[in-house]
Amino acid sequence: MIKALENKGGNTIQNDHTSYEDKWRDSTQPLLLKQRSAEQDDQVGYNHIPYHALGKGKIFSGFESLSDWIIEQKRVLIDGYIGVFYDDVYLQIGNRLAEKGYKVKWHFTVDYLKAEQVTEELVKPFLSHEKDVWGTKTNLNIKDFFEEELFGLSVDEAFDINIVIGIGAGLTSWDAGLIYLDIPKNEIQYRMRAASVSNFGKAETGPAFAMYKRFYFVDWVMLDKHRNQLLERIDVIADGQRAGELNWMFKGALIEGIRQMSHSVFRVRPWFEKGSWGGQWMKEHIKGLNNEEVNYAWSFELITPENGIVFESDLNMLEVSFDFLMLFGYKEVLGKRAEEFGPYFPIRFDFLDTFDGGNLSIQCHPSKEYISRNFGETITQDETYYILDCKPGAEIYLGFQEDIDPAGFRAVLEESQLNNQPIEVEKYVRSFPSHKHDLFLIPNGTVHSSGVNNMVLEISATPYIFTFKMYDWLSLDLNGNPRPINIDHAFNNLRFERKGALVEEELISHPAVISAGDGWELIHLPTHRDHFYDIHRFEFDTEVLAETEGSCHVLMLVEGTSVTVEVEGLRKHFAYAETFIVPAAAMKYKLINNGQGRAKVIKSFLKD
User: Fold this and answer.
1) Is residue 321 classed as helix, strand or coil in its secondary structure?
2) Residue 532, CB half-sphere, CA atoms under 13 Å: how many?
3) DSSP state for residue 379 in the 8-state scheme
């Protein structure tokens, strides 16, 4: 959280952020443009900034128009998510109101925070040891961080306008207009790396590793709850990712946009990350990425806790977190499983690129009971690897050799960690050649890894950070340091019975045609009994019809150039490797092949 400025009562204060983006944001991924460009609409192929058009007059640009709305309200609460530059918002609005001659009483929530040593004691039980990778999701509320004086703030009638600004503004008892400043989580992390933001209740920044851990297990949990409690009171949603600039909309327009999306087809905004084992496939096949980046390991295609959705009106662009879509539209999106998952989207799609890169670590994921008891998650990280592309000779590591000796395997792992010694992995773990469109099944507790020269579409349950690494090939991270090894956690979860011939039988999917017609087939790629989602693949020459049958479908074109998806007369185009979602409420849709050869579209959905 940015510290409050010293001269909060001044009429004109110089902007502190806008002139040097590289100082407050550390990323090669460009900031979302304030306005849509013609070049973006003319782009052919993978689209980095998919958006939903709202029509005219729905998104407003600039602090000037927002200040005019504030003048009409007289009393305003400016709340929002962590990572927003509240001092910058104060400067921009304060200067405009001062220029118009209004006398404004500002209240800064940061002034009512409890002492940092007090809040540090509050969060300590949820962060485990400082060297541990994981903590436990908190049951704290942001109210616990504030002195009671905040909740009873009084309006000063001697002023024309009264404003409370900062995280927690909505905790006051005022009857006032409420502006909510949102920011996507990738942008929070870019600011975190640049040391321009800190954790909630802390005055200073810290190591990125520790900051992310606290964000994930404490700050984001509390801020999500706080936002959800404010939903009914919010009047205005604003995009807080651009310093010195702001686009905003009324909540009614947001709800209408979400209603439209939840009955049609849409994409989220993806983002891309480098990594120690990252590859070069995405650079070659996804145009528009910064090719100066050393590699790309991940694409966050659909990891909904960290994705945003983008709206457009009059060329103005506004991004909000995916959470808003689910909070207002989860029943339409998830259909018959909505009551089970609520506003939590349960499926993720992401890319793991090791083309000309390195091997992923030898790893496993926790059981449902273990992830719940130790980390506070409600579902676990059951995964699959779908091979989007690979080079000859590429391999997937999966399951144990028939003669695996758990104690011997652990001894070798610990010796390797202690003395930095290589391990002959295939003496303990099986490996299989990978081919395009293979599907490898990785229920929790399964030892696995992707070898070099694979482009993996990871289709998984949503949890995404609970990877217990046992062996990392003696590799180093991009800063030249060893990555954390988690042998204890791994051995608390490994399923050693998944070995030998059982691996081919149960952990490699065996496709079967389950329906066919003139020029099309529907192929079932069965998942493991522990997976709560299943996978189909449409293969078609021209077009094919599909029904949601009350379930949300997550899809990707995995072979071909592009497809058109038609839902009730609305048509949207999707390129190769783009992830798109058809909500349950769409009921039925048509896939149209825009290429010359047969198209293949993968579909994941929740099992009945």
Assistant:
1) strand
2) 15
3) S
What count of Cα atoms within 13 Å lies in the side-chain half-sphere of residue 72? 9
> Which of 590, 587, 588, 550 is CA-nearest to residue 574?
590
Measured CA to CA in angstroms, residue 287 lies from 33, 44, 47, 291 at distances of 18, 9, 8, 9
**Which amino acid, one-letter code, is at 86?**
Y
* Residues forming beta bridges with residue 606, ordered by sequence position: 533
Closest CA to 70 of 107, 110, 102, 99: 102
| pLDDT, tens digit (0-9, with 9 covering 90-100), for 52-79 | 999 999 999 999 999 999 999 999 999 9
Mean pLDDT of the chain: 95
User: Of residues 42 and 604, which shows the higher confidence score?
Assistant: 604
For residue 292, give both structure tokens: 């100066």
Of 179, 186, 142, 145, whose CA–CA distance to 163 is shortest?
179
Per-residue pLDDT tens digits for 316-336: 999 999 999 999 999 999 999
- How many DSSP H helices and E strands does the chain contain? 16, 31
CB-CB neighbours of 302 under 10 Å: 25
Structure token digits, residue 227? 């936002």
CB 128, CB 136: distance < 8 Å: yes
The residues near 492 (Cβ < 8 Å, ≥ 6 apart) are 366, 370
Look at the block and give the residue holding tokens 């305003």: 76
- Please check the confidence at residue 11 and state whether its pLDDT lies above 60: no
HEC secondary structure over 36-64: CCHHHHHCCCCCCCCCEECCCCCCEECHH
207 in Cβ contact with 199 (< 8 Å): no
Measured distance CA(210)–CA(494) in Å, rounded: 27
Decide: 305 and 24 in contact? Cβ < 8 Å. no
267 Cα distance to chain centroid: 13
Which residues, in sequence order, are CB contacts of 133 under 8 Å at separation 6+?
213, 484, 486
Q: What value, to the nearest 5°, has the Cα angle with vertex 226 and ends 24 and 340?
A: 115
pLDDT in tens, 543-573: 999 999 999 999 999 999 999 999 999 999 9
> Whole-prediction pTM value?
0.95
3-state SS assignment for residue 418: helix
Interacting residues of 352 by C-beta distance below 8 A, sequence separation 6+? 297, 298, 360, 385, 450, 454, 455, 456, 458
φ/ψ of 103, rounded to 5, equals -95, 120
- d(CA 420, CA 375) in angstroms, rounded, equals 29
